Amino acid sequence: MGLVWTIVELIIIVALIVALGLAAAIVLETLRRRYNHSHVEAPPIFEDPKSLKPVPCPHIFDPAEKYISLIVPAFNEEHRLPGALNETMNYLQQRAAKDKSFSYEVVIIDDGSADGTKRVAFDFVRKYTVDNVRVILLGRNHGKGEAIRKGMLHSRGELLIMLDADGATKVNDLEKLENQIHAVVEEEHRFGNSAANDLTLRISDVPIAAFGSRAHLEEKALATRKWYRNFLMKGFHVVVLLAAGPGIRDTQCGFKMFTRAAARKLFTNIRLKRWCFDVELVYLCKYFHIPMIELSVNWSEIPGSKVNPLSIPNMLWELALMSLGYRTGIWKIYT
């Protein structure tokens, strides 16, 4: 009888090993098929709501036509979007009035909203023309990471900045990131960096990333938040450190600027579509040796956040996918 049970146990162990192996194989194949792609897509078409004529959409590999592009992902933002866009357009128009060489565009990506976000966005296109405000419709909800990727790939700026639709960060803080990028280019030029040293190159040709940060607000936040939220935040920071390494204290701030050269490398490779694409950006910056700057920005809590405690498992899952995808070589990085 003892021999029979030993054989049964061995059969169960072998079956478990086979099942685990099959499960791992399925996960790896899913990673390969779903995420390992080169993002070769037909470009979307912008529609001019006044003439109803299609406007051909540029690609990140095209030369820059504007100085700066502002990328605004929006999912069910009918109520928060108007205030943020009004503030943004007022700032851009005032700056353009003072500096005739300053050109801009705002690209709103409607991430499958079920409310009036699309209507609000097209109202701004009608008001400011399709040359200055453009809307990309994703049709269904893909996630913030995918919305930003799409906006970045089809923008015209030398500099490209992503900012949230809620207006939590003041738009004029982009000058902090912008000025620091210019300073890095000048410094590299002074010390003979081969890319920055070519006087024929524009700022768009030097890969640099500047990340807005709320890390300076962390002490105050720790004192006012519930203990379990602080515990989850600290735990998430540890996981991020393991997945992407040190260098950026606040990976999740939705206020980041890239030169066109940096965006070209990063957003043709990024795969995570929702919660942790910011962490993947840090990982890819390190892979491509793109200088990363972290700067404090003004930030305020705006009611209506899409992030909640249930988001934590999804974030951890995405970080696990990213680590597995890159460390096993299943996720190819295109250069």
Automatic annotation (TrEMBL):
**By its UniProt entry, which InterPro entries does this protein fall under?**
DPG_synthase (IPR035518), Glyco_trans_2-like (IPR001173), Nucleotide-diphossugar_trans (IPR029044)
| Annotated TM spans | 6-28
- Where does the Glycosyltransferase 2-like domain lie? 69-181
Q: Which GO terms describe its molecular function?
A: dolichyl-phosphate beta-glucosyltransferase activity
Membrane topology designation: Single-pass membrane protein
Instruction: Name the keywords, alphabetized.
Output: Endoplasmic reticulum, Glycosyltransferase, Membrane, Signal-anchor, Transferase, Transmembrane, Transmembrane helix
The pathway that the record names for this protein is:
Protein modification; protein glycosylation
Give the enzyme class: transferase
Q: Which reactions is this enzyme annotated as catalysing? A: a di-trans,poly-cis-dolichyl phosphate + UDP-alpha-D-glucose = a di-trans,poly-cis-dolichyl beta-D-glucosyl phosphate + UDP
Its EC number(s)? 2.4.1.117
Record-level GO cellular component terms: endoplasmic reticulum membrane
Q: Which domain of life is it from?
A: Eukaryota
Which family does the record assign? Belongs to the glycosyltransferase 2 family.
Q: Protein name, please?
A: dolichyl-phosphate beta-glucosyltransferase
Lineage per the UniProt record: Eukaryota, Viridiplantae, Streptophyta, Embryophyta, Tracheophyta
